[in-house]
C-alpha cells in the first residue's frame, strides 16, 4: 500500500516542477473535481437489462466473455456500481438504458413511466449522482425486421416513437429530481446489409419520427436529447440510416446535442478533431468514450493516443462546459467492476494529463509560428510527474492510490460476485 506521506511528498515535488512552467496544480485539481463522467450501467450486465433479460442482444452490438458475477437484478447492479464508484475519484453520473427498469409490474417499452425507475433516483440522491438515459431501440420483438424509427411499417414506427416520448419524460424526471440535466441519448441500429436502392426515404422517415418525438417542449434544465450516429454496424455494412451527417445536421437544426462515439467512425479518423468544428455551430456534444479495436468492438478504455487526443482537444479548446463525457464499452472477459474502474480512471487521468500543460504558452508559440518550441515542449511534458498529481488527487478524494484498488475488487469478487 502506498503511504500517505509518500504521496504528499511526491505531490509537493511535482507541484514545484509544474509551477516552474507556469502550471498551477491546485487550480488544475479544482477543475478536474468539477468534471462528471457519465458511467454506463450496461457494462455491469452485458447490456441485457431487467425488462426482458432472456431476449437476445440485437442491433449489431455484442458482448464477448462469460466472466462470473454478472448483475442480474437492479440491486446487484447498484451494488456493483457502488463498488466501482468508491474506487473512482470525483462525483459522477450513471447512464441508464430504458431496459434497466426496477419494478415488479410487467411493463413493455411503450408503457414505461418514471415510477418504474424511482429506485434509481432514490439511489442517485443518496449517492449524490446524476442520471442520464437512453431509449432502447434494439433487443426487442418490434425490432425483428432490423428497423425501428425508420421502418416502412407505421405500427413499428409508432411503437418506437411512443417509447422515445416516454423516455424523454423519464429523463426529465431524473433531471428534475436530481437537480441536474439528464441527457437522453437516442441511437438506432437501422440499416441495410446490402446496397439499398433508396437511401433518402428511410432518413426522411427517421427525421419525421424524431420531430414527432421532440414535438413536446420539455424544460432543458431537466433533459436534453442527444442523437448518436454510426458509420456502419455488424449486419448493416452497406448503409446506416442514422449516419453521422444525418445526426450532425439534425442536432444542429433542432438545437440538441450530437453524440460522438469513438467506435463509430472509420478507424483512421481522429474523433478529437471533430469537437472544435461542431461546437462552433452546435449547442453541445455527448461523447461515448470507447476503444474500437479494428471495428466498433467496445473494448475498455485505456490510456492510448486516441483517449489522450480526446482529452487534449476538450481541455485545450476549452470545450468541457459544452461536452458531456460518457463511456460506452462492454467487456465480459474481465471483472465487470474492474472494467468500469479502469475505463473511468483512465478517462479522468487523460483529462488531468491534458490540464497539466502550459496551454497559453503553447498557444503563443503556435501563434508566433514557433513550431520548434511547440514540439519540444509538448514532448518534454510527456515525462513530467503527472502520476504524482494523479496519486494525490486519488488520496484527496479518499479513493485507493495506484494499483491499491485491485485488491478491493478482488475482495468484492470473492465475497459478492462469485456467490451469484
Ligand atoms: C448500448 C448503447 O446504447 C450502444 O452501445 C450505443 O451507444 C452504441 O454505441 C451502438 O454501437
Ligand atoms: Mn455509443
Automatic annotation (TrEMBL):
Name listed for the protein in its UniProt record: L-rhamnose isomerase
Q: Which UniProt keywords apply?
A: Cytoplasm, Isomerase, Manganese, Metal-binding, Rhamnose metabolism
Role summary: Catalyzes the interconversion of L-rhamnose and L-rhamnulose.
The upper taxonomy is:
Bacteria, Bacillati, Bacillota, Bacilli, Bacillales
Q: Where in the cell is it found?
A: Cytoplasm
| Pathway, per record | Carbohydrate degradation; L-rhamnose degradation; glycerone phosphate from L-rhamnose: step 1/3
Q: Does the keyword Cytoplasm apply?
A: yes
Kindly give the Pfam families that the UniProt entry links to this protein. Answer: RhaA
Q: What gene does the UniProt entry assign to this protein?
A: rhaA
The similarity comment for this entry is: Belongs to the rhamnose isomerase family.
Superkingdom, taxonomy of origin: Bacteria
Q: Which InterPro entries does the entry mention?
A: L-rhamnose_isomerase (IPR050337), Rhamnose_isomerase (IPR009308), Xyl_isomerase-like_sf (IPR036237)
Q: Any idea which GO molecular function terms this record carries?
A: L-rhamnose isomerase activity
Amino acid at each position: 500500500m502506498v503511504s500517505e506521506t509518500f504521496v504528499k511528498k511526491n505531490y509537493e515535488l511535482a507541484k514545484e516542477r509544474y509551477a516552474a512552467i507556469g502550471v498551477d496544480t491546485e487550480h488544475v485539481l479544482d477543475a478536474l473535481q468539477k468534471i462528471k463522467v457519465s458511467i454506463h450501467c450496461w457494462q455491469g450486465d452485458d447490456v441485457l437489462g431487467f425488462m426482458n433479460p432472456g431476449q437476445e442482444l440485437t442491433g449489431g452490438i455484442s458482448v464477448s466473455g462469460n466472466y462470473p458475477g454478472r448483475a442480474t437484478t437492479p440491486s446487484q447492479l447498484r451494488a456493483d456500481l457502488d463498488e466501482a464508484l468508491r474506487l473512482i475519484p470525483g462525483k459522477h453520473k450513471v447512464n441508464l438504458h430504458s431496459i434497466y427498469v426496477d419494478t415488479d409490474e410487467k411493463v413493455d417499452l411503450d408503457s414505461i413511466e418514471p415510477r418504474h425507475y424511482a429506485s434509481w433516483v432514490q439511489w442517485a440522491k443518496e449517492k449524490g449522482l446524476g442520471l442520464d438515459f437512453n431509449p432502447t431501440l434494439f433487443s426487442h420483438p418490434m425490432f425483428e425486421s432490423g428497423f425501428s424509427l425508420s421502418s416502412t411499417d407505421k405500427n413499428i414506427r409508432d411503437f418506437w416513437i411512443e417509447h422515445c416520448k416516454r423516455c424523454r419524460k423519464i429523463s426529465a424526471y431524473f433531471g428534475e429530481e436530481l437537480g441536474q440535466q439528464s441527457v437522453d441519448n437516442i441511437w438506432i441500429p437501422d440499416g441495410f446489409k446490402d446496397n439499398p436502392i433508396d437511401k433518402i426515404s428511410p432518413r426522411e422517415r427517421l427525421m419525421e419520427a424524431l420531430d414527432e418525438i421532440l414535438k413536446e417542449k420539455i424544460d432543458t434544465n431537466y433533459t436534453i436529447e442527444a442523437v448518436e450516429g454510426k458509420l456502419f454496424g455488424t449486419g448493416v455494412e452497406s448503409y446506416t440510416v442514422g449516419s453521422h451527417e444525418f445526426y450532425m445536421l439534425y442536432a444542429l437544426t433542432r438545437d440538441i446535442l450530437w453524440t460522438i462515439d469513438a467506435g463509430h467512425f472509420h478507424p483512421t479518423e481522429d474523433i478529437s478533431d471533430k469537437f472544435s468544428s461542431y461546437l462552433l455551430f452546435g449547442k453541445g456534444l455527448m461523447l461515448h468514450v470507447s476503444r474500437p479495436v479494428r471495428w466498433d468492438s467496445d473494448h475498455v478504455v485505456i490510456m492510448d493516443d486516441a483517449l489522450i487526443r480526446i482529452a487534449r482537444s476538450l481541455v485545450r479548446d476549452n470545450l468541457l462546459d459544452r461536452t458531456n463525457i460518457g463511456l460506452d464499452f462492454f467487456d465480459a472477459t474481465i471483472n465487470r467492476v474492474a472494467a468500469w474502474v479502469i475505463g473511468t480512471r483512465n478517462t479522468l487521468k487523460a483529462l488531468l494529463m491534458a490540464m497539466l500543460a502550459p496551454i497559453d504558452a503553447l498557444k503563443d508559440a503556435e501563434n508566433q509560428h514557433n513550431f520548434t518550441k511547440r514540439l519540444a515542449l509538448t514532448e518534454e511534458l510527456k515525462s513530467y510527474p503527472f502520476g504524482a498529481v494523479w496519486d494525490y488527487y486519488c488520496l484527496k478524494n479518499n479513493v485507493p492510490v495506484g494499483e491499491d484498488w485491485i485488491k478491493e475488487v478482488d475482495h468484492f469478487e470473492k465475497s459478492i460476485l462469485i456467490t451469484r
